[in-house]
Design a protein that fits this description.
Length: about 500
């Protein structure tokens, strides 16, 4: 932990060695919600870049791998469940660290309700209860119940969470692979849709479309990969905490790359770019449409994949937000009650329930406005993701700056790689701000004070964070006296353990 932090720890910490490397890897994978992410993004990406959608997913992988490497490098010297918050505070000071922690916490608030909504909706579709999907009361009630149940699983224990995640990832991957195999087989057998086309290696070229469409597609691709760092948020509860969580984060991005590109090739080939572009506004329901087309009576397999994907991610998305709040509270960057650890389960119960409660309130409030407003809030999510990922990459280079010239490996993995990843994300962030400023580019298509709703939501969250940071600085100034540090040579070279 950072200097001065030990005294702020509760008597009973998080449960050490609760899960292993494979459990952390599964949680990292499920946090990205592969089936849901594909379902939600494949239509809009194809509408933007056509058959080059698999290439865009390939290109989006580059900054994710570089930032995952930064997470791994920083976790090596600081096994703190607050990840970005703790690392940026160490490298760049408390103000930047607090904003990074705020961004992570708010991503959970923005997305958990949507994930639970999708989990419940697709479960109803898989069970043939389509008529209930249009009932707003039933849909919102089911969403709240899903959030409450998955939050309870998070509180009961990390081992229980891991077991649930293991079952859900197996069901999800099996369903996705079944769909991909059937779809590709039907394309080559000539029994696909009228718009079916055989896959081509040229589809892997992300620059085939170019222009603003490519930028928008890459930003959607970043959203698809987001979430893998949940494995690192569990660093204090994973065996071999200095190395296993970081390796799980890196490997999860690689596995996601293979999954996304393979399934995207199958979807684009089977449905055809014309069908996907024409139904882009259906968002995640594109998979529901394709399920009936490709699988026939077995369409419930694909629907179940999306449901389990969203269900798993509902649980795992709460983990980074709650652990970050815990880390901030025990460093006195938030009220200390957020640092409470459950005496029996040894999980951050207070911060976990707070995240869930705020997420429920946000979901119900935005849903009352319109479904498009909910999608606009998810678009704003990409701004927060790009911000704290880029901040982490920059912090890695700054924290290791005295070790970059020691070897080529240090220069690449501690400096160049994280900086390139951060630079790519900053570029996407700037480009997306310009795009989101136009109300026509939002789902709602309406103007909020002359701006698009997603950008205004992002600005509102940022300003709220700045105000709360200022207020807490006045009320509890201890945290704000921390000064930036550099990586301890003993930790970098493995001469001693972090403590």
């Amino acid at each position: 932990m950072a200097e001065g932090a030990a005294d702020s720890h509760p008597p009973e910490g998080l449960k050490a060695d609760a899960i292993g490397f494979l459990d952390a890897l599964v949680i990292g994978l499920n946090s990205t919600s592969p089936a849901y992410s594909l379902a939600a993004v494949i239509g809009p990406v194809v509408a933007l870049v056509g058959v080059h959608a698999p290439g865009v997913m390939l290109a989006s992988f580059a900054p994710m791998l570089l930032i995952a490497s930064a997470f791994s490098s920083l976790n090596r010297v600081d096994q703190d469940c607050g990840t970005t918050f703790s690392w940026v505070t160490r490298a760049m000071g408390p103000w930047a660290g607090w904003l990074g922690g705020w961004a992570i916490t708010m991503t959970g608030v923005l997305v958990v309700g949507s994930l639970a909504d999708v989990a419940g909706t697709f479960a109803l579709l898989a069970l043939g209860l389509d008529h209930w999907v249009g009932n707003e009361f039933v849909r919102q009630l089911l969403t709240v119940l899903v959030i409450v149940v998955m939050t309870a699983v998070c509180v009961i224990g990390t081992e229980v969470s891991a077991k649930v995640q293991n079952a859900l990832i197996l069901a999800q991957v099996a369903c996705l692979l079944a769909f991909a195999v059937v779809a590709i087989h039907r394309v080559y057998a000539g029994t696909g849709t009228p718009d079916s086309v055989r896959p081509s290696i040229s589809w892997l070229d992300p620059f085939g479309a170019g222009g603003a469409e490519l930028t928008a597609g890459l930003l959607l691709g970043v959203f698809m990969y987001w979430g893998w760092e949940s494995a690192v948020n569990l660093t204090e509860e994973v065996e071999n905490s200095a190395t296993a969580p970081g390796r799980a984060a890196v490997w999860s991005t690689v596995i996601l790359l293979v999954t996304y590109v393979a399934v995207a090739l199958a979807v684009v080939a089977y449905a055809g770019p014309a069908f996907l572009a024409g139904n882009a506004e259906e968002e995640e329901f594109v998979f529901a449409l394709l399920a009936g087309e490709a699988m026939g009576a077995w369409d419930w397999v694909v629907l179940l994949a999306v449901s389990t994907s969203a269900l798993a991610s509902t649980q795992t998305t709460i983990i980074p937000a709650s652990r970050t709040a815990l880390s901030m509270a025990r460093r006195h960057a938030l009220p200390t009650h957020f640092a409470h650890i459950h005496a029996r389960f040894r999980t951050p119960d207070v911060s976990t329930w707070w995240v869930a409660g705020i997420a429920i309130a946000w979901y119900l409030a935005v849903r009352r406005i319109s479904e498009n407003a909910l999608f606009d809030s998810l678009t704003a999510l990409s701004l927060l993701i790009a911000f704290y990922y880029a901040l982490t990459g920059l912090a890695c280079a700054v924290y290791y700056r005295r070790h970059l010239t020691e070897s080529l490996c240090h220069f690449v993995f501690f400096g160049l790689g994280p900086l390139v990843g951060a630079g790519l994300l900053v570029w996407l962030l700037v480009e997306s701000v310009g795009d989101m400023s136009d109300p026509e580019n939002s789902y709602s298509g309406v103007s909020w004070f002359g701006l698009g709703p997603p950008l205004l939501i992002g600005i509102g969250i940022a300003l709220t964070g700045v105000v709360l940071m200022g207020v807490w600085h006045l009320r509890a100034p201890a945290f704000w006296s921390e000064r930036p540090q550099v990586a301890d040579p003993g930790l970098v070279h493995g001469d001693k353990k972090e403590g």
